[in-house]
Amino acid sequence: MRKKTKLIHGGIPQDEQTGGVSFPIHLSSTFKQEKVGQFSYEYARTANPTRTALEQLIADLEEGKAGFAFASGMAAITTVLKLFSSGDHLLLSEDVYGGTYRLIVKVLSREGITADFIDTTDLDKVASAIQPKTKAIFLETPTNPLLSITDIKKISQLAKDKGLLTIVDNTFSTPYWQNPLTLGADIVLHSATKYLGGHSDVLAGLVVTNSKELAEELAYLQNAIGAVLGAQDSWLLIRGIRTLGIRMEEIEKSANEIARFLEAHSTVSKVYYPGLLSHQGHSLHKSQAGGFSGILSFETGSEQRAEKLIGATTFFTLAESLGAIESLISLPARMTHASIPADRRKKLGITDGLVRLSIGLEDTADLLEDLDHSLKQ
Ligand SMILES: *Cc1c(COP(=O)(O)O)cnc(C)c1O
Fold this sequence. Notes:
This protein has helices at about 5-10, 50-60, 75-80, 100-105, 125-130, 150-160, 175, 210-225, 230-240, 245-265, 280-290, 305-310, 340-350, 365-375; strands at about 65-70, 90-95, 115-120, 135-140, 165-170, 185-190, 205-210, 270, 295-300, 315-320, 330, 355-360. Helix 4 links the parallel strand 2 (about 90-95) and strand 3. The chain contains 14 helices and twelve strands. The protein is α/β, with parallel strands linked by helices. It has a seven-stranded mixed β-sheet, sandwiched between helices. A five-stranded mixed β-sheet has the order 8-9-12-11-10. The chain folds into two domains: about 5-240, 3-Layer(aba) Sandwich (Aspartate Aminotransferase, domain 2), CATH 3.40.640; about 245-375, Aspartate Aminotransferase, domain 1 (Alpha-Beta Complex), CATH 3.90.1150. The chain is globular, with a radius of gyration of 21 Å. Pyridoxal-5'-phosphate (PLP) binds near residues 97, 144 and 171.
């Protein structure tokens, strides 16, 4: 089955009982048992049929053995990181999502888990950062907001050789473009709030693994912690995922045109988009992913100029988040990455004049005209 077909026919596509072509929303929180201990569903925190349909769908899409759905991307990440305990050490991409950084530095540190945030695009740096107590490498590729690319295959191989797990946050690429498990990763996770939901109307997180042992542990943690996705949101997410392919294709076409336009624009000094030949990770990304998604960042030169541009656009909504049908614009240094100390931001290259776009499904010509007009302000 090819990807677009799998998006439609993956998981549990229909309701066997009624023939309904849309899988129903099962709101029951508890289920009748035939005899004590004899049941297919027991209690909705442990499993709910609508959530199961979603979990099978994401497992199919990521080529994994088992999928798990959570109330948000952060709930998914928190549950996965509960695989680790006091004394364990983790390695993460240095420009990992701000919420992941905060969770580890401010919350998991209280439980005695330590971590280093390193440049995972550099294999030697990763190898030399591994300590005897290191248990996992957690990476994002592309990263936010500078779209750095890490070699999933090489990192996974290194991790395997050292007995570590590889965990990939695949939010930016989605399973439509990139499947980290097939490249050697052990766990792939998503903020499904972004492209998978796709319509800015559901908050959710998804996790997939291809290891039977990890699947058992994750199922245990999912039930024990209970940060699960509700039935209505599971249904909404299934509906969003069905159209992921066509959305990702259209968004990428638009994003490519916009990235090229910005690169040629006299007021823009630098554009970060993995689809551009000038991007450092272009060929590596192309070797491990089928497409480039719709997030790009560019340098306007100063916070003042960035704010002027943001104020002048018509079709780009000033908002956090990404990956939906409407185009969004943001100023990472003051918004998504504001919780990162200024000196660390500077080191990473997240300047005050850096603007991030998430391209939506509007007509590309309107988006280009809007940007052109706003950049001239
Ligand atoms: C948004 C995001 C998250 C967190 O997801 P929520 O659904 O907001 O909890 C994690 N990782 C990445 C890459 C994200 O963009």
